[in-house]
Amino acid sequence: MPAVMVVWTGTALRSPETGWDAVRAEGLPRAGIRESVRVAQCSGTAGGRGCGSAPAAGSDHGDSPDPVAAVPPRSPGPCGQEGGEGGGEPLEGSYRSTVCSAALTVPSLHAVADKVLRELIEPYELRAAKLREFLADVQPSVLYDIVPLGDPYGPAVTDPELRCIVVSEETRRGGEAVNKKRIENGLAALELFEIELMEDPYHGHNEEEKISSSSLRQRLLGTLLRPPRDRRSSDPSFPRTAPRSPPTPTIIGLTGGSGSGKTSIAQRLGQMGAFLIDADALGHAAYLPGSPAHGRVVAAFGAEILNKDGTINRKVLGAKVFGNQERLKSLTDIVWPEIARMVRERIGEAGAQGKAVVVLDAAVLLEANWQEMVHEVWAAIIPEEEAVKRIVRRDGLSEEAARSRLRSQMSDSQRVQQAQVVLCTLWEPEVTRRQVSRGPLPTARGAEGGNGSSALDALLGSQRLFLLGRTLQSARAVATSEREAEQYEHNARNQVTLWGPSGNILDYANKQLAGLVLDYYGVRWSLFVSLLVESLNTGSPFHQEQFNQAVFQVERGFIYNGKRYPATPVGDTLEIARKIFLKYYPRATQHGWDGPS
């Protein structure tokens, strides 16, 4: 049986009776901070009591040779699980262990319902699996049990074998609450072993000063959480002969509940140059007389829904379907396909205009299954209490009516499960702008600089020595299965961009390859120019760290785009060069350039 309860988020633990030997291991949080962990190794038998662990957190930058301070616990609460908010995203939540014999508890999602951005907390099963993997890496001889934590105290107040609990200065009161409960239950009080919290030297605005997984979750906002969708396999309107890649334009489906700030995000994307499609406005158009849906709606719901001018009275229509799921489905089965048809028309218009990015602003994007029309789903989320305040203030509804509206909609958790990118407008507008600036695939900024990179890419693509497709094809050729080929291609893409899972070498080399210039460097160049212009316009310093994080997302977007790049040259090099000259030379002369001397 376990003798010690550990709050797994970076803890320190000791035994008066036994010694320990320090071993070092690396944990890999998703959001970029790497833990350097010291784990105590019991010098007694494998089942001995009272051994401990002392994880410590360090940065990903190698400037701390041997960090010892522990990863911080979260806000105070009983039984030590108050520490569950720190320690890196893969180990989200509260973990308690004994070393060499361990009892580990991982909180269920309802146990962390009040956490910031709780929708980004991984499922219990995944967190438990990552904890097992971590323990196996750190100390394979550790014996442990993992059980879900569903209440504030867990086994700490009922297990007579426990002898110690780890706390921090700010969570000591939680440990004292545990001991009070244990004494009430006729059990001996636990030894409280206090650890220090480690400051996060890279914490940003609105983030905690200590290392905390709530801060790491904030850093996930605006980043690519899962690979983009392949429209070719899901959208019947998408040409079967199209390559396995997002064609121009890239289509972002932006969704969110009432009060989420979705509209302000759409406006920001529009300011950056994206082509906006307002699904709500198209919905109004779908009800107009003469539209394909108008007659069918009148036939289904009766002439009493019409105004004198023949337009549909949407309030009367709404009253007919309110609370009646069958009638509501009858309505949406008529209207949603018509809106989707108009959306596709608008996407075609955007492509004809040469737009690089289209944003489909649609509150019912997922309910209507319109995610099949987009490459990425971007979900705007907001805590319910904040959404209620916004709805009451904006629409003049009562709090009860506002809550009723929110609970009739898809939940934020459901949206996050289907989203490639998650955004939150809980903080100042500048924080939202930074989130949007992290966009992982070609954004509207890419459209601003896309013509030059497209021309250079075409020039490179006319010569066999400058083809990214040849590099990727060579990597796939040595594989013995399709799965292996995908892995080798993934590694090859890493080598020309990231050089490691965390962007180990930000600028290893500038590889001038057709495909890489268009889909990676072109986006990256325009990202830099955009942030530089914004810095100059606002008179604020250029945030190199913000740029580095954004570049990392650009790299991930390239690695996962699934695109098949040509392995044979396309076009005549001299003709392409001539067209580039004729296109850009007049612009250069307008700015006073007289040509080469």
The order of strands across the largest sheet is 10-11-9-12-13
Outline type: globular
Helices, by number, come to 18
Q: What is the percent of helical residues?
A: 25-40%
Please tell me the overall pLDDT.
74
CATH architecture descriptor name of the largest domain: 3-Layer(aba) Sandwich
What is the strand tally? 13
Overview of the molecule:
39% of the residues lie in helices and 12% in strands. It has 597 residues and is an alpha/beta fold. The chain folds into 3 domains: 4-212, HUPs (Rossmann fold, 3-Layer(aba) Sandwich), CATH 3.40.50.620; 219-437, P-loop containing nucleotide triphosphate hydrolases (Rossmann fold, 3-Layer(aba) Sandwich), CATH 3.40.50.300; 444-590, N-acetyl-b-d-glucoasminidase (Four Helix Bundle (Hemerythrin (Met), subunit A)), CATH 1.20.120.670. α1 (124-138) links the parallel β5 (101-107) and β6 (143-149). The model is unreliable at 4-103, 238-247 and 440-450 (pLDDT under 50).
